[in-house]
Amino acid sequence: MAGAEPEKAPPRRFPAVLRRRAASFGYALRGVAAALRTEVHLQFHAVATVAVLVLGWVVGLARWEWALVVLAVGLVWSLELVNTAVEAVVNLVSPEYHPLAGRAKDVAAGAVLAGAVAAAAVGALVFGPRLWAWLS
Question: Which residues form the catalytic set?
Fold first, then answer.
């Protein structure tokens, strides 16, 4: 077989599991974007997140303070997204008012409130002393 060209190897492709993982990130980002477009509370949290990040940069937070702030922000975002999902599913399965549907929505909203109160406490503990010193 003199003069025969060597076989070309097929192009390497990502294994299927990696393609599926990459797709799942895309679906998750699509969900966050959809919630941001439609949920006023999440839009408020987005503005608050930017304000907190800018304030943290201005006051020069320590690494451990950044960790607390990022965890608090992530907690509130996560709870707000879960609340949005619960509301969508409840509206799908119970378009008419039902006391249990109302309770599910109220409990999900209560989870967001609890997370937001905890995040506000973290914010007061991290930013409070700096802001107090600045105002004094």
Answer: 80
